[in-house]
Design brief:
Blueprint lengths: L10 E7 L10 H15 L3 E8 L3 E8 L3 H23 L11 E4 L3 H12 L1 H6 L10 H6 L8 H7 L3 H18 L4
Antiparallel strand pairs: 1-3, 1-4, 2-3
């Protein structure tokens, strides 16, 4: 797969999974550390619009704010830092992630909107969990009034406000539930 070249001021879906489908998080502390390191290595270089951390993969919806080469290197440093810490923590060696982080450039606002919903629905897709209750996604963060690095106001503006943000997510959830309900 040819990797998308990052461009400044563009939106991307960044994701990756554990090598050989192995877990990249073994507990909630790992997920908190991942988010902490993300902030440390990429603050001011990217804006985060959505995220979801599952046990064996993650999704980020971001906008590039700095020079692409700097951002790419910062992502590399971030992933290497996390992998070293995780490997040390659980007593493993070797690569943790698939070779390169995947990135898909978003071409329009509708795609961005649908991707944000898709990222938040990951607990439903993979674990049959209520996405609203899942702690390691940006869904709750966007709805709360607490300080955050997530682009809350912009995300809510994209959806036309908090009520429509909730409505769009619930509508997608209902469609997923119908799809998997057998009578």
């Amino acid at each position: 797969m040819k990797l998308e070249v990052l461009e400044k001021d563009r939106f991307y879906h960044v994701y990756n999974k554990g090598i050989n489908a192995t877990n990249i998080f073994s507990n909630n502390d790992n997920k908190r550390y991942f988010l902490k390191q993300l902030k440390l290595y990429l603050k001011n270089q990217i804006s985060i619009y959505a995220y979801c951390l599952m046990d064996n993969h993650f999704h980020l919806v971001i906008k590039i704010n700095s020079e692409p080469d700097i951002v790419t290197q910062s992502f590399s440093n971030f992933f290497n830092s996390y992998a070293k810490a995780y490997n040390k923590h659980i007593g493993r060696t070797g690569s943790l992630f698939e070779k390169h982080f995947k990135r898909i450039r978003l071409e329009n606002e509708e795609y961005l909107k649908n991707l944000i919903i898709y990222v938040h629905m990951n607990p439903k897709h993979h674990l049959d969990m209520d996405f609203k209750e899942f702690v390691f996604s940006s869904y709750q963060t966007i709805l709360l009034e607490k300080e955050t690095k997530i682009e809350r106001k912009t995300v809510l503006d994209i959806f036309g406000g908090k009520d429509n943000f909730i409505f769009c997510h619930n509508e997608r959830n209902d469609k997923l539930t119908e799809k998997y309900t057998f009578e």
